[in-house]
Amino acid sequence: MSGPTPLTGKLRLALEEQRGVSIADASELRVLSEPGQLVDRPVTLFRIFDPGAIDEASDAPRHYGDLATSLVLHSGHIDADDTIVLDARTTSR
Hints:
The structure is a single chain. The protein has two helices and five strands; from the N terminus they run βααββββ. It is of the alpha+beta class and 93 residues long. It has one domain. It has a five-stranded antiparallel sheet with strand order 1-2-3-4-5, with helices on one face. The chain starts with a strand and ends in a 7-residue tail after the last strand.
């Protein structure tokens, strides 16, 4: 997938249930994803960020690897069966 996209309903729901992010707040967030491997299975890696937090002078991230880790609000992976797994929180945002 190329370029940031709005969060899917399942991602918004996971953020609401697991992190307390309101559906309204989640609607402003964007996600970048890429195929990956976790242990021995294929997954989709994702990073969620607020596009409003990106400096206008900076290039907007277009790919998963373009996003500075300091801008990542939530991350995780999606298993082949569509199970969403959020990574442990590493910051106190």
